[in-house]
Amino acid sequence: MSKEIIHTDKAPAAVGPYSQAVATSASKLVFLSGQIGFVPATGELVTSSFEEQVKQAFQNMQAVVEASGGSLNSIVKLTLYLTDLNNFSVVNEIMATMIPQPFPARSTVGVASLPKGASFEVEAIVAL
């Protein structure tokens, strides 16, 4: 699978770890359901800190990506959901350490609530 990063100066530059757009010649697309910060072994939501909940959600997403036959580099689009957009910079910092460059395209959405009281959810589109 190859990824072509699309960038134009005629649109605003990315304000975080993402690309304006990504094109792919993939033969298979995988659409992941949203992942929250559940610990797989216990089924309990990480509540120790927002940062740990975000890390766990990304780890859960990674496990599903890998189960599909992909890697984190196979992600072409992420959608992030936050119950508090004041945590946007925290998520950017964590994402920048967990997702390899070139970064996928991304949308971030502020929501009133998430399942099971989660503060963060991530979903992905993977190109294989």
TrEMBL record:
Signal peptide: none annotated. This is RidA family protein. CDD domains: YjgF_YER057c_UK114_family. Pfam families: Ribonuc_L-PSP (PF01042). It comes from the Bacteria. Belongs to the RutC family. InterPro entries: RidA, RutC-like_sf, YjgF/YER057c/UK114. The lineage of its organism: Bacteria, Pseudomonadati, Pseudomonadota, Betaproteobacteria, Burkholderiales.
